[in-house]
Amino acid sequence: MLEAMLPLRAFGAVGKSPVRMAFLFTPNGMSMPQWTPAQAGTLGDLPPVLQSLSSVRDSINILTGLTQYNANALADGPGDHARSAATWLTGVHPHKTAGADIQGGVSVDQVAAMRLGDATQFPSLELGCERGAAAGDCDSGYSCAYSSSIAWQTPSMPLPHETNPRLVFERLFGVADPGETAQSRAMRERNNLSILDFVSDQAKGLRGQLGNRDRLKLDEYMTGVREIEKRLNRTESAVNHIVPSQIPSDAPSDFGEHIRLMGDMMVLAFQADLTRVSTLMIANEGSNRAYNEIGVPDGHHEMSHHGTDPERLRKKLAIDTFHVQQVAYILEKMKSIQEPGGSMLDNSFVVFGCGISDGDAHNHDNLPTLLAGKGGGSFQTGRHIVYTDGTPLNNLYLAMLDRFGIPVETLGDSTGELNPLF
User: Fold this and answer.
1) Average pLDDT for residues 143-169, to the nearest whole number?
2) Is the pTM of the predicted complex or chain greater than 0.70?
3) Out of 3.40.50, 3.30.410, 3.40.720, 3.30.360, which CATH number does the structure's domain 3-163+251-403 have?
4) Which of 207, 243, 309, 393 has CB 3.0 to 4.6 Å from 66, enough for a Cys bridge?
5) Residues 6 or more apart from 148 whose CB is under 8 A from it?
6) Average pLDDT over residues 238-252
7) How far, in Å, CA of 54 to CA of 75, rounded?
8) What's residue 237's pLDDT?
9) Kind and range of the H or E element at 392?
10) Max CA-CA distance within the chain?
11) pLDDT of res. 247
């Protein structure tokens, strides 16, 4: 949103930026003793897992005591990982099946997308960093669709997430037709062109009509697109089997770079108002990915079953800290982008957390929940708020939807809006 697009100030109008909603999910629980602040109230020194968030401490709240009750077995036996992902944004107990008769609930992001999606090119954006599956048995009789999806458009339709950074980039900034996209990309590669070269004349014409602050904002946006393009090109050039003009099937080998690329594209999509709703699964629930880049060659899921073993606890802490560092990067980027009414982070709700608390216990109460941003000025930040254990996590979502301009009576197992928060 440029100042030149806002109503004339002579009429007393004050421009406002749209409010965005993002949900960032990480699997296998959290190192809770190193996550939880020492006391309720104003955030002081952050605990070890959250240390990387120090630069945005005044823009976050840590919420303790929230629960997804319907992720519990409820007589369905094992399958906590699948249930934790399926209920995280829905609050609805999923039907246990490894077949096609999957059944869950509508997720909070899709409630927002269905009500406000017509205002943007994409009603919502589903991103991830680990490929999932729509079928098969991934967790004790639960379909893989449950453990690899957090966004549910209908009770029987989980939305797959896109893990290929190039495909996300082309979807956001390329042309709509897949055939044209492939041809366009091939031509850009042959002539060593940026996607920005296709709009350079229009950008120059627009720039001449803008004031100084708008010019800086336009330059900031174009630079952001170009930087992502360069990073994608570097990533793809490192994959030997990539054939020019083909969409690469491989993600960046650097997992941190993969997460950051996805986060940057989400931020650019918000900045251009291509969407106002997004989800990002850092990894699928139950993921056993190794983290060699931080000196943990063992699988994440394996380390989450620590049995209080000190070495496993150390490795699990390292993984959790690494994930939060990538989230800190995304939040810092949002905070750096200035808009009417404050920064992009000020104009957003960003929820980061898990559907499991302690990975060894597989419990779904006292979930690690971080709420970042101010939702357009809706609430105070910089606090650790402790709720009665068992308070539905969906009460938070109900309150967020209300501040998003979407009053909803109930969502999943909600019992009312979460207070005192707003």
Assistant:
1) 95
2) yes
3) 3.40.720
4) 393
5) 85, 128, 130, 131, 132, 133, 134, 138, 160, 161, 281, 284, 285
6) 51
7) 42
8) 66
9) strand 383-392
10) 67
11) 46
